[in-house]
């Protein structure tokens, strides 16, 4: 296949406490792409790392003319870090991937082939459960995708990753999206375009440990589901109607017991009923409260991220390469 020499690829990599992976990843990307006819740039986004990650990125940026860095003012989260890098990418295609080497760089060549075959989005998903993950991580990941597919308006393959290629026209649409809580895996699926998914087996982390905790995964799941659907409101409405129907069916029993003269008031049954309905009301109010909270935060129009430093320069209020 003959490639257009003018095509440029932007690789966006969010990094949080990945100091020992930066140089190795750049080396692997070089080995993968050096024999192709593509020009490529690597944009690292330091998401408030607490170790020496930023200095490692700056060192490599000084050594390699195609390596750039963006330092965020604090830890804004992986999706916001990706949004920051995507916002600065100028390539004909943009590839996003993790910094821990679990996303095999050699798969980029396969992505590029599908892109050349006119696919706008080439995304990846784990073919099987991550062989390097712990048991609870595998279980929570599976529940995460089942919950999203059941309660939201999008469908994601189990193990859908942030390792993907997007054409420039897709990136243009992503840059225009302004949401306070952004879930890129869902938004990219929602955009449509011509997409194809590639199965892959995650590699072992080069160094370090997974930073996502169980609590963070639950928070991400709740936020992602509510970002794409009002279905949870319909679900609790259905539960409320079901419980109300049961309560109506209970009325004949109460009347018969009263007129038959054997109605006995019981503390346990009363308390159980109060606790049940009280819990149901709190559940409904909690879900409504989350939606109202999201509206409140979105209405503030705060930026998704704040850039503290970068080796891009500002010209006419726009960041460009130096």
Model description:
By secondary structure, the protein is α/β, with parallel strands linked by helices. It has 2 domains: about 10-210 and about 305-320, Spore Coat Polysaccharide Biosynthesis Protein SpsA, Chain A, CATH 3.90.550; about 230-300. Helices cover about 50% and strands about 20% of the residues. It contains 10 helices and 10 strands. Strand 1, helix 1 (about 20-35) and strand 2 (about 40-45) form a beta-alpha-beta unit. The mean pLDDT is about 80. Keywords: Cell membrane, Glycosyltransferase, Lipopolysaccharide biosynthesis, Membrane, Transferase, Transmembrane, Transmembrane helix. This is Glycosyltransferase family 2 protein. Pfam families: Glycos_transf_2.
Task: Explain the layout of strands and helices.
Elements: E1 8-15, H1 22-33, E2 39-46, H2 53-63, E3 67-72, H3 78-88, E4 93-96, H4 107-116, E5 121-126, H5 135-151, E6 160-167, H6 168-176, H7 184-190, E7 195-200, H8 214-228, H9 231-260, H10 267-299, E8 307-310, E9 312-315, E10 318-321
Parallel strand pairs: 1-2, 1-4, 2-3, 5-7
Antiparallel strand pairs: 3-8, 4-6, 5-6, 9-10
């Amino acid at each position: 296949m003959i490639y257009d020499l003018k095509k440029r690829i932007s690789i966006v990599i969010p990094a949080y406490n990945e100091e020992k992976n930066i140089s190795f990843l750049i080396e692997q990307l070089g080995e993968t792409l050096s024999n192709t006819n593509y020009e490529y740039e690597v944009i690292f986004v330091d998401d408030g790392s607490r170790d020496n990650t930023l200095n490692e990125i700056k060192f490599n940026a000084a050594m390699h003319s195609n390596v750039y860095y963006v330092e965020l003012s604090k830890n804004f989260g992986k999706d916001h870090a990706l949004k920051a890098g995507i916002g600065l990418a100028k390539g004909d295609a943009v590839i996003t991937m993790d910094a821990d080497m679990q996303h095999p760089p050699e798969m980029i060549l396969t992505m590029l082939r599908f892109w050349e075959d006119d696919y706008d989005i080439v995304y990846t998903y784990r073919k099987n459960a991550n062989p390097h993950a712990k048991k609870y991580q595998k279980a929570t990941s599976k529940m995460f995708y089942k919950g999203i597919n059941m309660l939201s308006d999008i469908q994601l393959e189990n193990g859908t990753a942030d390792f993907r290629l997007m054409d420039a026209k897709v990136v243009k649409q992503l840059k225009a999206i302004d949401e306070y809580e952004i879930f890129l895996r869902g938004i990219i699926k929602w955009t449509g375009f011509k997409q194809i998914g590639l199965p892959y087996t995650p590699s072992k982390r080069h160094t370090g440990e997974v930073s996502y905790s169980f609590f963070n995964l639950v928070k991400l799941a709740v936020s992602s589901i509510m970002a794409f659907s009002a279905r949870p409101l319909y679900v609790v409405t259905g539960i409320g109607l079901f419980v109300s129907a049961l309560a109506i069916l209970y009325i004949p029993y109460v009347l018969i017991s009263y007129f038959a003269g054997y109605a006995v008031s019981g503390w346990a049954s009363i308390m159980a009923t109060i606790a049940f309905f009280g819990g149901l009301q709190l559940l409904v109010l909690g879900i409504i409260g989350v939606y109202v909270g999201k509206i409140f935060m979105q209405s503030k129009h705060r930026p998704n991220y704040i850039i503290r430093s970068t080796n891009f320069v500002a010209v006419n209020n726009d960041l460009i390469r130096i």
